Amino acid sequence: MALYGDRMTFEQTVLGIVAKASDDDNNNSNNNKEHEAIETTYVKAPRVLYWDPENNIVIQQDAGTKSTHLKEFISTHTLNPKLVKQIGSSLGEFIARLHLYGLRHRSELYPEKMANKEALSLSRLILYDQFLTASSKYMADQPQSDRDVIELASQWGGDRLVNEPETLVHGDFWPGNFLIDTTTGEEDELTINHMYIVDWEMSRYGPAAMDLGQFMAEAYSLNKYRQPCEELMACFLETYCKISGDRLTTMDLKTAVIHCGGHLMSWTPYTGWFKKDDDQDAKAKEITLIGAEYIKRAMSEDWAWVRQETAFRVMVDHLKL
To answer: Is residue 42 assigned to a domain?
Structure first.
């Protein structure tokens, strides 16, 4: 599927939504009004400086001369636990605020402004429609019943993606789209200036939990292949659950775990996590089977396993399952 040119229309639209929500909240003097800001102390969206709708060109605010994306940052820096927790909590707060804002303002944003049906079709194509390719390549020696579950999950997740316009989502929420700018303080300790969330062209109304699943899959890979950062995942989900409160359901958990597992199966083996001379095929099979296990357990709603074996234990505990 070719990329569609007007995706940039959705990017500049949603960047305007985030900016207006945060700016209006900061300027609001009515203390009784519910806080609407999407941005947090550290996590922002860049402001649009120029928009050319005829040529689909967006010029955005710079993230800082020394900024780098979070995947690279975590891969190349030794991080202190305080910083890891701060990053996870800040990202969880931002995406929870975005999802809540989308719920509150659904009538004005959907479908008129943020349907983005092309993004839904593209997301299904590049993730859920790839489950069978992954299973046929690396699960041929697994029980047929396991492969059948993967096929069912492919259809279940794809249908949920395109048919459940739940709330406003980022649509490509992974560390490569988080530009972090830091300062070196006392004793060479790194502190955050800000993180800019970029690449909003896939933003649309869809299931909120799929943003969680994508982030958790990439954070899992950082923890497994780069350096230990389990607190990144835990703090992300703890903050998200705290802000979301009783809005979260078992369906959200199921969706997030399946999306995470599918990402591990369909993307992780092919996006540079292991070197070509590192027995790449064996590593690809290993992570595919890990992702498949996530999917199988979520499809059967085996929350005891999810709690015992994955960072999604935070959501399991929040839901008291």
So the answer is: no
